[in-house]
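**User:** Everyone, produce a chain:

**Assistant:**
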Amino acid sequence: MEWKPGLEHYLTVSFLLFGLGLLGVVVRRNLLVMYMSLELMLNAANLALVAFSRFRGDLNGQMLVFFVITVAAAEVAVGLALLVALYRQRQTAHVEDVNLLRL
């Protein structure tokens, strides 16, 4: 008998990925690590959408994930450009130093 993962397995992995990303955002103070953790949370939501789409038998969730990934790629380009600009100006990528940009 062949074992096939069910919806609860995909949602468990999605929940664990989301929780790991949330932990990274809350605990870490480095902007780059926080940014990667936010992307991990976004991918966890995408996994849940694809899992629901697969088990419902339609492609709506998968099409939504396609657009979310497209927007996330643009977000990565802008976000990393901002992080590089912050690092070049302040020589650090810590959250506490973002307040210094107001001066």
Remarks:
- The mean pLDDT is 88.
- The chain is about 75% helix and 0% strand.
